[in-house]
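Hey L., structure's done. Input below.
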Amino acid sequence: MSRCPVGEVQEVQEDVQEELIDFRSLDRELLAAVREDQKGRRENAAKLRATSQRLATYQEFRDVVLACHLKPLDQKEKRGTGRQTWNPWCPLATTPHPSPSNHPSSPPVP
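Output:
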């Protein structure tokens, strides 16, 4: 039975540690590559659609390709949630605002 000298064992351990795979890094690289591939396919499909539409200018073509990542709204998003309050601190007016000519502090309009 032969034994390895201590120095050789340390070298083998260092080689094994260098060969360890960082799976998180590989996963990030793979996801980035997949996203880039999807983007390329999506843009290519948009280019083919734009050429088949026979757009008048290059700017229109470019706009179609740049907007290819946008998705149409679904029915829920189109309906909305009702009346939107733009200023929650201001109570809703039940009567119309007086015009400047009818305001008591304004001078009479000739």
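The chain has a mean pLDDT of 78. Residues 98 and 104 are 9 Å apart (CA to CA).

-- N.
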